[in-house]
């Protein structure tokens, strides 16, 4: 007499079901939890049950009930994993994590991922790499920030190949750092604002005396209007501020805005040299001491409006220089002996201003 496999499977399942006193689910006996499963007596090797609590099928190996998903990752999560379990590959192929069939995230060696380039830091074939692939053209990585009212923090790339970091500052304001610009005209940008005169502040950290920050310098607008002029202040807020782990430590209250386009709370150093021969001045020079039979050539005044030179003559005789305007608005080409000449370009001529 022939018995179909379907009937045979049903008969075996029914025997096990009678041991558990549970209902049959798709032909496999059902237990509600591990305790009920482990209390089964008389189970034969190869017997199967469905564990409702673990949402998986277990097979009896003659001694214990073993999950058939022990070597698989389940879409509903896994239980009983150990430090030796992992999600990934054991051979040299890329691993991908997808959504909507887009390989958003890729893992592998640089060569395996096809990302080796003949540029510094991109040439190591064996460099372990995590590649945020996105849609293959652009990608973004956003962070949770429930305290941000508007601009949730995000790393992202753009269609022109630029890379940026954008996010919230002080709950309602914005900061952005990144590259921009067309081909062969790239730039690096630092942006702060939204409204008002929010500063970009550079600080130093000190671990002594309770751990604190000290402001090095700041760049910000002169006021909160849309037409505010830029201000750059160095060492204008030297107070020590204790660290605040919430990063909500201080408001703008009590902090100075630079009182001019540039304010320096300390010394200023500029270039100075002693001549050893005749010299043509450029952007490397500021103060020049003429020590011998040396003459001075000035750059075109229209090439450096606002530039200032200080020239002192201790050569023992008058020396020659490019034409400049005197205090009476005449012209001269002489630097008199034992004198100091201050010259500044107005964009059209070199003007004596001392």
Head-to-tail CA distance between termini = 123 Å
Please state roughly what percent of the residues sit in beta strands, choosing from under 5%, 5-15%, 15-25%, 25-35%, 35-45% or over 45%. Answer: 35-45%
In the residues, how many domains can be counted? 5
- What is the residue-mean pLDDT, rounded to a whole number? 89
pLDDT < 50 stretches: 1-25
Number of helices: 2
DSSP E strands, number: 27
Structural class: mainly beta
SSE succession: HEEHEEEEEEEEEEEEEEEEEEEEEEEEE
The proportion of residues forming helix, as a percent range, comes to under 10%
Biggest beta sheet attributes: 5 strands, mixed
Shape: elongated
Order of strands in the sheet with most strands: 1-2-3-4-5
Compose a concise summary of this entry.
The protein is mainly beta and 354 residues long.
Keywords:
five-stranded antiparallel beta sheet, disordered N terminus, mainly beta, 354 residues, single chain
Could you please describe the fold and organization of this structure?
The chain is mainly beta and 354 residues long. It has 5 domains: 5-67, no CATH class; 95-132, no CATH class; 148-193, no CATH class; 200-264, no CATH class; 272-352, no CATH class. 6% of the residues lie in helices and 37% in strands. It has 2 helices and 27 strands. It has helices spanning 5-20, 34-38, and strands at 24-25, 28-31, 48-51, 56-60, 65-67, 95-99, 102-109, 128-132, 140-142, 154-157, 163-169, 173-180, 187-193, 200-206, 212-221, 230-234, 240-242, 262-264, 272-274, 279-280, 287-290, 296-297, 308-313, 319-325, 331-335, 339-345, 350-352. The strands form 7 sheets. The protein has a 5-stranded mixed β-sheet. A 5-stranded antiparallel β-sheet has the order 9-10-11-12-13, with no helix packed on it. Strand 2, helix 2 (34-38) and strand 3 (48-51) form a beta-alpha-beta unit. The longest helix is centred in the first third of the chain and has 16 residues, at 5-20.
